[in-house]
Amino acid sequence: MSADKNSNKELWDDSHRTWPLPNLPWTMKQNWHNLLFAHYPVKLDDLRRLVPEVLPLDSFNGMGWVGVVPFEMKGVRLRGLPRVKGTDQFPELNVRTYVSVDGKPGVYFFSLEASNKLAVWSAQTFYHLPYKRADMTLVKNDSTIEFESKRRNTNDFNFACNYRPTSEPFYAKKGTFEEWMSERYCLYTTNKKGVPLRCDILHQPWQLQNAEAEFKQNTMLYNQGILVADENPILYFSKKIEVRTWPLVRALE
Fold first, then answer.
1. Residue 44 φ then ψ, to 5°
2. From the record, what ranges are coiled-coil (predicted)?
3. Can you tell me the mean pLDDT for 43-60?
């Protein structure tokens, strides 16, 4: 076997997942670059009012957690098709929390912002995700990422932040907060009837770094009814991860 094939086999090894992938072909490949994970504690009762009852909340140290995650998508393409220029690279911003269905820990999104019109439409249509279009920029200045987002047609959802890594890369240890928030291999949503759906994903374990950030503007939480218990977030950075996604399936069979 060639070195390239060996590398590809290692990249897409799924042995670290705690449940099997669906017996379906993967549908999309993408790379996530220059991610900031900014996490805020939220009281579980406050969080419960914002997340569909059918999705059981996860907690760490007795608190729910909401993450604000700016990053850049690159290399986006559908299975069997080449990348389409103009739609394969764009900034994104998501606001998320953590749920588990049937023992499978995953991510639930309050909102997702993207600058790409086709990406927003596709995610809304095929994945039932709350994507919105926004005017966004991501600029890398040495080790600092300068990120700005303003949702279109409203002045209520704005985000501006400079962030950078402050440590060497590391893998999260078992039982730590960084493992709890990052090592999740699916996302959850609901359809119009309220049925919980799961989208499985595959990537290698996250390589994280400690981070620091200057928040110039962040209305993404309060304007969605998210009341944080501490306005000083826990910060981590990740340089890059390659991801494959699968079609939506019912979370409960």
1. -60, -35
2. none
3. 98
